[in-house]
Amino acid sequence: MVKLNGEIAENAAGKMLRDFLLESGFDVGRIAVEIDGSIVPKKSWESTPIADECSIEVVSFVGGG
């Protein structure tokens, strides 16, 4: 069971992180991702598989002034 921002993410295990993020509707140009407490560099997303039982946190950048 993979968790995404505290919610169960069905069918995420085994997918590559970038593919999963796109399928989940994230704007990959405006987010940062942490897996099990470690920041995952954006350049690694295409080669980072999602392990079963991991916890993924996604933070979106919002502009303002």
User: Regarding CATH, which class?
Assistant: Alpha Beta
Question: What is the domain total for the residues?
Answer: 1
Q: How far apart are the termini? A: 39 Å
Percent of residues in beta strands: 25-35%
CATH superfamily: Beta-grasp domain
By secondary-structure content and strand pairing, the structural class works out as mainly beta
**What composes the largest sheet?**
5 strands, mixed
Write out the strand line-up for the largest beta sheet, numbering strands in chain order.
Answer: 2-1-5-3-4
Summarize the helix and strand pattern as letters: EEHEEE
User: In percent, how helical is the residue content?
Assistant: 10-25%
Shape: globular
Radius of gyration: 11 Å
Structure description:
The protein is mostly beta strands and 65 residues long. The chain has a single domain, classed as Roll (Ubiquitin-like (UB roll)). It has 1 helix and 5 strands, in the order ββαβββ. It has one helix at residues 17-23, and strands spanning 2-4, 7-9, 31-35, 38-40, 55-60. A 5-stranded mixed β-sheet has the order 2-1-5-3-4, with no helix packed on it. β1 (2-4) and β2 form a beta hairpin. The protein is globular. The mean pLDDT is 95.
